[in-house]
Amino acid sequence: MSDESTMEPMLELFLFETTQLVEQLEQSVIDSEKCDGYNIAAINEIFRIMHSIKGAAAMMMFDTIAQLAHCVEDVFFYLREGKPENVDYMILSDLILASGDFIKNEIDKIRSGGNADGNASSLIDQTHSFLDELKKVNPSVQTVAKESTVLSQKQYYVSQDKKAVSLKKQSFMATVFFEDGCDMENIRAYTIIPSLRDIAKDITYIPENIMEDDATAEIIRTEGFKIFFSSGRPYSEIHELLEKTIFLKTLELVEIDGAATEKQESRPKQIILEDFTDKNSNPIGQHPAAINKKAVSNSGQSMISVNVAKLDTLMDLVGELVVAEAMVIQNPDLRGLSLTNFAKAVRQLEKITGEMQDIVMSIRMLPLATTFQKMNRIIRDMCKKLGKEVQLELIGEETEVDKNIIEHISDPLMHIIRNAVDHGIESGEERMAVGKPANGKVTLEAKNDGSDVVILIKDDGRGLNRDKILKRAGDNGLLHKPENELTDKEIYSFIFAPGFSTNDKVTEFSGRGVGMDVVTKNINSIGGMVVVDSIPGAGTTISLRIPLTLAIVDAMNIGVGDARYTIPITAIKESFKPREKDIIIDPDGNEMIMVRGQCFPILRISQVFKVNTRTNDITDGIIIMVENEGNIVCLFADELIGEQQVVVKALPPYVKNIRQVEGLAGCTLLGDGSISLILDIGGMVKRKKTS
Predict the structure, then answer these.
(1) What gap in Å lies between CA 566 and CA 554, rounded to an integer?
(2) pLDDT tens-digit map of 158-209
(3) CA 579 – CA 594 distance, rounded (Å)
(4) In whole angstroms, what is the distance from residue 389 CA to residue 373 CA?
(5) Rounded Cα distance, 211 and 187, in Å
(6) In a 3-state reduction of DSSP, which class is residue 104?
(7) Which of 257, 535, 595, 685 is 20 to 30 A from 606 via CA?
(8) What Rg do the C-alpha atoms of the chain give, in angstroms?
(9) Residue 589 falls in which region: left (phi positive, over 0), alpha (psi -120 to 50) or beta
(10) What angle (nearest 5°) sits at the alpha carbon of residue 111, between those of residues 116 and 156?
(11) Are the beta carbons of 492 and 532 closer than 8 angstroms?
């Protein structure tokens, strides 16, 4: 255990699986609350979750987590065995969620390199008190006594004493097979041993060096993990314990002759038992795959766990491949040449590269379900503190986006949901007074729209107060044009300004003017946009438009003098040759252009970035109309070079710190080897507003 090379994979596995288990725990509690109580399935699931966390934490020597999980497990053992009728499920839910929060906090400390040094004594005392009170109010309940596990004794290693202790214990052999594709079978096998020590002694196993030799994972995968031990417990109890193994595919448990445990050296590597059959009528000692390998190999989809860093590296390599492909196809040495065979090879290369890119992109795509489900907890806690009843409806949670995108939208969603429940949804009395149902509703919806994903957050509350927002925006100096020229969407967008709040009273959830500005900051950082719409008395809808991925984007390359710039296709509304008669100059000298009866500002890229241009005559260049958050600007460039998929590269830190580069999102390498700067349309719009 002290070996660093052994600890690292075990720790990684512990953090990953414990995080998943806590998420399952939280969702199970929330689902049970919606059903006004815990059914037997939920009780069994939570018991299994806490038992798994307890065993894994004990093995990793995170005693506090193990003790807390063990304490909660005791409560659910009582609920499962005794089936008491008088249970305060509200208090129980609070205790479980608080325990889950404590474990999550400890996991975060461990993941960031800190110590799991939290104090859970208060939670443990509360849980013990709850169980004691539960037994008092259900005096008629009789349960099977559950042997307490002494977690303070750090016995995490299997005894090397090969001599059997003659205490009239029966000897057993268990063979465990894990689910296909679960990976790291040797580490998963080792996690069984600490929980087995509660009821067994003289534990040995084959293969033996599972923590020292990663090659044993393949042996366990094909031959199973064989455990030999002695125990005075009944067969059914041992079988039930082993069945709780995570990712368990099959379990074979048989009683064997005690003489076989007297000396490990005499134990054969494979034991054939002809007189026993398991519940599926397969000979014990023979895995079902040995009977019908073809059937097993064709059943289900194989999965494999891959480190995220490897996926990022693979994505980078594919990006470099896309660039290299463009450099070959657009090589200036090939201009004017008629190369029929080369053209055929290029088409085949483009096909293969495109398919490879699609596959790698699909591997990185994750459903929004996990992120969406987390919002249940936020609404649950807020409703309890605010005395409101709000239902969360999830639509399109199976929609997939790049994993890096998901990391950027979790906080914005949390702030928007909190704002909707606190500001938007009225109290039950207010709602009924205006003819609404007492329970409010928040809808979280995701859907694909071309190369983007649109996330809608709707509430059926009171809506935004246009006049109040406008007044507060004026007080804060946020108005950039006369009030009568502002559209409703422009006024509503002020709620995302840093420090902006319409609340007169500071509460736990709002009034400080922080939080909602995180929404635009995070969404803009990934090239997305935020739009707000509201109907007084009917509710508010906030739309987040985000790209599917950040790594490779469809873009339009433009030229200004000798410089090259790239604009994401999703930001372009149209491009056209301007006419002299459509150009308007205002009294301040600002250029504007009339397009189908509407007037839009012109931003000359050459002036923004101080580069030489081939022409200053606007009729000799090209206009590219771009949009960000409902704001439209017409960019003036010398020429359109063409559409291309580009690999987004971040700007170096020393470049980012230069004030002049505001409006740049990154850079990319073009096919001819030149560098093109990627325009941040949000920044360009901002520059025009402040110019």
Answers:
(1) 10
(2) 333 333 333 457 889 999 998 887 777 887 888 888 778 878 888 899 998 8
(3) 10
(4) 18
(5) 7
(6) helix
(7) 595
(8) 32
(9) left
(10) 55
(11) yes
Burial class (CB in 10 A: 0-12, 13-18, 19+), 339: exposed
Pairing of strands 631-637, 598-604: parallel
Q: ∠117-123-127 over CA atoms, to 5°?
A: 140
Q: Which CB contacts under 8 angstroms, 24+ apart, belong to 315-318?
A: 315/360, 315/361, 315/364, 315/551, 318/356, 318/357, 318/360, 318/552
The Cα–Cα gap between 593 and 599 comes to 6
* φ/ψ of residue 566, rounded to 5: -125, 135
Q: Where are the alpha helices (DSSP H) in 139-204?
A: 185-190, 192-196
Q: Is there a contact between 225 and 192 (Cβ–Cβ < 8 Å)?
A: yes
For 464-517, the pLDDT digits (tens) are: 888 888 888 888 888 877 888 788 888 888 888 877 776 655 455 554 344 577
pLDDT at res. 125: 94
Cα dihedral value 635, 638, 639, 641, nearest 10: -90
Cα dihedral 224, 229, 232, 233 in deg (nearest 10): -20
Give the C-alpha separation, 232 to 678, whole Å.
Answer: 71
CA distances from 487 to 135, 409, 484, 630 (A): 63, 27, 8, 10
250: nearest Cα among 204, 182, 199 = 182
What DSSP string describes 517-586?
A: HHHHHHHHHTT-EEEEEEETTTEEEEEEEEES-SSEEEEEEEEETTEEEEEEGGGEEEEE---GGGEEE-
What is the CB-side half-sphere exposure of residue 643 using CA atoms within 13 A?
A: 7
Structure tokens at 99: 């325990």
Q: Which residues of the chain have pLDDT under 70?
A: 1-9, 142-168, 257-305, 450-451, 502-515, 550-551, 629, 652-662, 671, 687-691
- Alpha-carbon separation of residue 17 from 191, 255, 667 (angstroms): 12, 32, 38
Reference 438, options 425, 429, 449; nearest CA is 429
For the CA atoms of 277, 278, 284, 287, the dihedral, rounded to the nearest 10 degrees, stands at 130
Residue type, 37: G
Give the CA count within 13 Å in the CB-facing half-sphere of 266: 9
Rounded Cα gap, residues 618 and 632, in angstroms = 18
